[in-house]
Amino acid sequence: MVKVDEYARIRQAHRQDKMSIRELARRFHHSRRKIREILAQPEPKKYQRQAMPSIVDPFKPVIDGILRSDDDAPRKQRHTVGKIYRRLRDEHGYGGGYGRVRHYVLSQQRKSPETFIPLDHDPGQRLECDFGHIHVDFPDGRRLVPVLVTTWAYSNCPFAIALPSERTEAILHGLVEAFAFFEAVPHEVWWDNPRTVAICKGVRL
């Protein structure tokens, strides 16, 4: 798996240093096929964890039916989680634990009508920025290093760079590197309220 920072270095070396696929494969210790894949895509493929099936899954239609019938029943006659669990066990052969049934029932009871808020952004309109932190081992010991993370609101394409501080000079340097990597400048930059940026009211790019 190729990390985001290495992904960016490979693409930058190919674009700015004009390194060939052969040279990139030797320098970054990847196959030529992997290098071609990295150069062909603007960002790494996101890892998707496959959800493991739950022992409750086959019994969810039964639970849903019980809950629907409870909607029209008097409050005192409605099923508790314990009653639902016992019905599944005694009438339907459920062999799992009470906790899994309780978790599913509560998740269904908490559901509310879905609300959709459009969050469309035009390409190149908005770049969102925030700082994260990573531990880095230096010869004189481990230190916490700030990392500027920039992401396009339209495509969710990221760029990250480690910086010596969160001071204005470092932030500006990080933005210049991000613009060079993206080969574009956004119409607006949104920050998650870092003090070194938030105090500069009225400044527009």
CATH architecture of the largest domain: 2-Layer Sandwich
Question: What is the ordering of alpha helices and beta strands?
Answer: HHHHHHEEEHEH
Overall geometric form: elongated
Low-confidence stretches: 200-205
CATH level-1 class of the largest domain: Alpha Beta
**Strand neighbour order, sheet with most strands:** 3-2-1-4
Structure annotation, total helices: 8
Terminal CA distance reads 36 Å
Largest sheet: 4 strands, mixed
CATH superfamily of the largest domain: Ribonuclease H-like superfamily/Ribonuclease H
Tally the structural domains: 3
Work out the helicity level. Answer: 40-55%
Structure class: alpha+beta
CATH fold-type name of the largest domain: Nucleotidyltransferase, domain 5
How do you describe this structure in short?
The chain is an alpha+beta fold and 205 residues long.
3D architecture notes:
This protein is an alpha+beta fold and 205 residues long. It contains 8 helices and 4 strands, in the order ααααααβββαβα. Strands 3-2-1-4 form a 4-stranded mixed sheet, with helices on both faces. Helix 2 (21-28) crosses helix 3 (32-40) and helix 5 packs across helix 6 (98-109). It is elongated and about 70 Å long. The model is unreliable at 200-205 (pLDDT under 50).
